[in-house]
Amino acid sequence: MDLIFANNQDLSDLITILLLNVFVVFFISKFIYLRYNNKGKKSLNEFFFTYNSAGLITFLLCFLLSNVKLDLGFALGLFAIFAILRFRTETIKVKEMTYFFVVIGVSAINALSNNNASILELAVANGSIIIVLLLLEYTISRSSAE
Predict the structure, then answer these.
(1) Mean pLDDT, the chain cut into blocks of 10 residues (146 residues total)
(2) Distance between CA 58 and CA 145 in Å, rounded?
(3) pLDDT given at position 45
(4) Does residue 3 sit within a domain?
(5) Residue-wise DSSP of 17-66
């Protein structure tokens, strides 16, 4: 098996998309989730940590394994592991699970579109997710304040 020390194009793609992903996940978790949901709850900082670390791991797993042929059994096995973890942990609110899904989804989209989409297309996709989350949180916060 021949190991390649570095592939400059793949490395630059990884760094560029990784920086975009880290920024988007951080923005979602810090400036949307914490801003609209941190009303005296110290435990939300744990979700901030979870969202950012899960986003990073999801991105790296998807990016680095995107060229590896995986069968359906492996994918179902990963899903089963996440399901078991979900049922074995404490109950969390639907909103926190939704943000967790958004972070995983954004990271998977960014990682798996490395050869199919330009940075501008990824920026538009990520920007649309951010805008929709901001609009939803703003609408909910306005209606609950009334």
Answers:
(1) 69 92 97 84 80 92 76 64 64 83 90 84 96 95 78
(2) 36
(3) 81
(4) no
(5) HHHHHHHHHHHIIIIIIIHHH-SS-TTHHHHHHHHHHHHHHHHHHHHHHT
Q: Which of 75, 78, 32, 74 is nearest to 51 (CA)?
A: 32
49 inside domain: yes
Q: Taking the CA of residue 13 as centre, how many other CA atoms within 13 Å lie in the half-sphere pointing to its CB?
A: 19
Domain containing residue 58: 10-145
Task: Quickly tell me which residue has 């074995």 as its tokens.
Answer: 88
Phi and psi at 16, nearest 5°, equal: -65, -50
**Please, are residues 63 and 111 in contact by the beta-carbon 8 Å criterion?**
yes
Contact 25, 103 (CB under 8 A): yes
Number of domains in the chain: 1
Residue 51: count of CB within 10 angstroms of its CB: 24
DSSP, res 70: -
Token representation of residue 37: 């949901």
Task: Fill in the amino acid letter for 24.
Answer: V
